Amino acid sequence: MAVTTFSRRKTEVDNPDLVIIRQLDELQRLSADERDKQLGTGFFSDLRRFFSMDAASTAWATPNFRPRVQIPDLQIALLNEATDISDASPRIFLLKGGKRDAQRETAFQEHWKQMHFNNRLMEVDIWALFAGTGFAQVGFDPDARRGRGEVWIESRDPDTVYPDPATRDFTKWLYVQYVDTMYIDEVRKRWPERGWSIRPRRGSTFSIGTSEVSPTFKTTPGPMKFATSAPGTRQPDPNPLVTVRHTFIRDFTTEEISKEERERMAEQLGPLVTPPKHKPRWPNGRYLIDCEEILLADGENPYPLGRFPIIPFHGMPSLGSFWAPPGIRYTRGLQFLAERMLTQTFENAVRLNNGVWFIHEDTGISADDFGGIPAEIRVINRGSQFPEVRWPTAMPQHMTQLPEMLLAKQKELLGMQGARSGQQGHGNISPDLADTSILESSKLTRLRMRILAESVQNLSELVFYTMARYYDDYRFPKFDNKGGTDLITWSSIATAYDDYDIYLDQASAYAVSASSMRRLVLALLEKGHVPLKFALEQLDIPGATEIAEQAEQQNQLNALLKLKRPR
């Protein structure tokens, strides 16, 4: 296959791709400016330091009267919140022609579980809670499952996503971009026609070695060729990493319909309707990939029904902008103040918790030979005053309690106080009252889940339509509690995937108190409204199927004994 070679950083005449590249650069700049306007320049760098608590590892490295004391209250609270939010597994209903497709529903649910999509949603929720907005990406890997392909979900760093800044509704995006950092050999493997036109930049600080280990041995293409076996012999080699930009855009360019196609359309439409002369060139959307001023690919959007593979998740309501305000901004100031006060308290404790010795001149003891060692024996002059130690006035008690008050206020604002944080109330409290207190303190969680439910709906739709478009016939295993396996058949939908309507069970998108659910199931079982097998499965009892079958056999045996028993 012929390889078209383009020179980098030349004029539009030398490289026609530069016209498109410059337009994509401008779209990325507009999106980045809007993000910096809403979040601030360097926001994500500061967020990563806050999440990883990087200062905590160096605070105590050297003796210091003022080490920075860090408290991870806000970080832990938001991680607990993300765990609660991602606890629920979304359940969808598939309708085709008004009829429910229960078999594909089960296959979809099993695929969701086996791919651990809830873990990916938890990662997205963590980004949404800390940064205000998180992004889930849906993709299809044709090489997975030994060549059968696999639909996947990944959490994408919001710092790498550039959405359309002109709209708040992601279903009305005109474009969205995201960037990936890849090895140049991987780029050349994926896009061989244009990938070899990319030239790595030299003199980069990323360089990790020489491309040759020895004069007679050369490493294979990939990361190994940038390594060296001789320490201290690193040379300024080309940077093995390059930035690849993906752009999904709704391009409204039209193209002329051929005469033959217009004639076929005229036969279908009839004599009263004039066939159009033009049609959209990219009816499903346009997909462009570029790297280092080289256009790697330009074609039709591969995702079904004109959908983009990026789904935003907002942790707080967004008013007037696409980017939601970061949740940490509401209470981070209280935590910073508490940390600053604890730092000052520690400093005062170290500086002032040392007594000062006063030695009178007539004792015969000099300051040079006095150590102040415990149980030290010294001889003083007759009739002289004893050396004495003076302690500074103790700090008021409320000064040491104030940081705790600030952290308690933060927990109150986050809804993590009392029963929500696992603390039992004073006195005898009924389970109903405990659940009520948890529910009242979970208002902010319910607000977030209401916002996130719409994103979960769109994510479920995109996953299903992508599965419908690319999956052939496949059997998903469904494991029961006895260790057995049922095979759920997924039949290929081919091109009829747009005939399906997807509905999300709203109740499945909301987290419910586990203790409340258990009591509800037990109450329904006691009244005979649910079968035993269902109750055991909801309670996560090991061997639920086997227990239910044995209980059913025992009930049948008891019924037979009653019939045979003489009256």
Structural notes for this entry:
Among the domains are: 65-134 and 326-364 and 385-512, no CATH class; 515-567, no CATH class. The protein has 16 helices and 19 strands. The termini are far apart. The protein is an alpha+beta fold and 567 residues long. Helix 3 crosses helix 5, helix 10 (332-352) runs antiparallel to helix 11 and helix 15 packs antiparallel against helix 16. Mean pLDDT is 77; it is low at 1-9 and 203-218. It is 38% helix and 17% strand.
**N→C terminal distance:** 92 Å
Biggest beta sheet attributes: 5 strands, antiparallel
> Number of helix segments?
16
Mean pLDDT: 77
* Shape label: flat
Uncertain segments of ≥5 residues (pLDDT<50)?
A: 1-9, 203-218
The Rg value, from CA coordinates, equals 34 Å
Structural class: alpha+beta
Strand arrangement in the largest pleated sheet: 5-6-9-12-13
Helix content: 25-40%
Beta-strand share of residues: 15-25%
List the helices and strands and how they pair.
Blueprint: H1 17-39, H2 43-52, H3 73-85, E1 92-96, E2 99-100, H4 102-114, H5 117-131, E3 133-141, H6 144-147, E4 150-156, E5 161-163, E6 175-183, H7 184-190, H8 192-195, E7 212-214, E8 217-218, E9 241-249, E10 254-256, H9 259-269, E11 278-280, E12 286-291, E13 294-300, E14 310-314, H10 332-352, E15 356-358, E16 388-390, H11 397-414, H12 431-440, H13 443-470, E17 474-479, E18 485-490, E19 500-504, H14 514-526, H15 532-538, H16 544-564
Antiparallel strand pairs: 1-2, 1-19, 3-4, 3-14, 5-6, 6-9, 7-8, 9-12, 10-11, 12-13, 15-16, 17-18
Helix pairs in contact: 3-5, 10-11, 15-16
